[in-house]
Amino acid sequence: MKVKKILIIEDEAPFREAIVFALEGEGHQVLQAENGAEGIRLARKHVPDLILSDVMMDSVDGYEALVALRQDQRTSEIPIILMTGKTDKEGLVHAIELGADDYLTKPFTIPELLEAIGIRFKKQEDQRRRVKEQSSDPRSFLTLGIPGDLRTPIAGILGFSKALTREYVEMNQSEIHELGRAIQKAARNLLRLAENYSILAQIEILEREPEKVRSLRSLRTTDLKGAIEPIALDLAHHYERSPDLVMMIGNAPVACSQEYIGKIMFELVDNAMKFSSKEQKIQVSALPEPNRVAMIVTDFGHGMTREQIGDIQSYSGLSSRLTDDRHFGWGLVVAKKLSELHGGNLSLASAGAGGMMAKVTLPLASR
């Protein structure tokens, strides 16, 4: 294996030095940090190939270090393996949901450590090879971006299931239930991402066949309220935010199928629910304008930066991690592409901390 640069973040010196000895014996270059803050600094300065981090540390702990590293463009792609205690099942769930690639339960053996590191490096090399092989076609986001985004939910499913199979004897019923729910959540995220990928792939094919586009645009939805209201209500119930939802939906014939209107609005409302807080209103409206219908979803959460809006508009530069608390992802891209496919558009506006407005316009159907 090629010599790699590995950063170890661990506050127990004897344990840290034992790992350093083992990794240097394999020919790796090893950096050491005795706390999370020092680990973040070294990671940003040296950009290692992999990070091993303890969870329980004073000052900045492993979770805080993980979040900081995932939010920094310089370190967001570095594989991170967390080292956790056997009793820290809740922390394990939290860590993998935050974007950890794997975990090792203390105490672990050196062969287990080397195996986990080897798996991470192999996946890293496979991804780099795929990127190198891709063309410069702008549509390469379909083969580069989304497969990369699959990593987080898949890592969650693998991590949680590994915890169950390795340690189920020592778990109580509530811990097993918690990991089961975490697996379900990760699987739902994976399924939704796969569905969005499928829709984007279908759109890329349809856009090259004008006859099929004309056929698609001939479909119509006459019950706009019936297409939007149940989806918004269901999402509000899912996020336990029914009192926050405010709707004003008129009726007009729209040149788009009910299925696709539902998909567009699902992504807009879900995005608003996800990136705003409880007791902040979510406003959903759908009203006719001259020759078109305007469907608007407004929230009062933390908004989007100009760069994030630009990423959605151009389908480029999107984060390669699809996590619940830090990424405006492929859902908005799907909504935009579906809108454009039907002769409409999606516009985004944000006032930073003042919230976010997403507006989709679609043509009225001929009467």
Reconstruct the topology from this structure.
Layout lengths: L4 E5 L3 H13 L3 E5 L2 H11 L3 E5 L7 H10 L8 E5 L4 H10 L3 E4 L4 H24 L7 H9 L1 H17 L5 H34 L3 H8 L6 H15 L6 E5 L8 H17 L7 E8 L2 E8 L6 H9 L15 H12 L3 E6 L5 E8 L4
Parallel strand pairs: 1-2, 1-3, 3-4, 4-5, 6-7
Antiparallel strand pairs: 7-8, 8-10, 9-10
Structure description:
The protein has 367 residues and is of the alpha/beta class. The protein has 2 domains: 193 residues, Response regulator (Rossmann fold); 155 residues, Heat Shock Protein 90 (2-Layer Sandwich). The protein is 51% helix and 16% strand. It has 13 helices and 10 strands. Strands 2-1-3-4-5 form a 5-stranded parallel beta sheet, with helices on both faces. A 5-stranded mixed beta sheet has the order 6-7-8-10-9. Strand 4, helix 4 and strand 5 form a beta-alpha-beta unit. The chain is elongated.
In short:
By secondary structure, the protein is of the alpha/beta class.
Strand order in space, largest sheet: 2-1-3-4-5
| The CATH H-level homologous superfamily of the largest domain | Response regulator
> Can you tell me the overall shape?
elongated
- State the end-to-end CA separation: 67 Å
Would you tell me which CATH topology of the largest domain applies?
Rossmann fold
- Structural class, by secondary structure, is alpha/beta
How many separate domains?
Answer: 2
Helical run tally: 13
Helix fraction? Answer: 40-55%
CATH architecture of the largest domain: 3-Layer(aba) Sandwich
The CATH class of the largest domain turns out to be Alpha Beta
Q: Give the biggest sheet.
A: 5 strands, parallel
Q: What's the β-strand tally?
A: 10
Radius of gyration equals: 23 Å
- The helix-strand sequence is EHEHEHEHEHHHHHHEHEEHHEE
Average of pLDDT:
81
Which ranges are low-confidence, i.e. pLDDT below 50, for 5 or more consecutive residues?
Answer: 134-146, 316-328
| Binned strand content | 15-25%
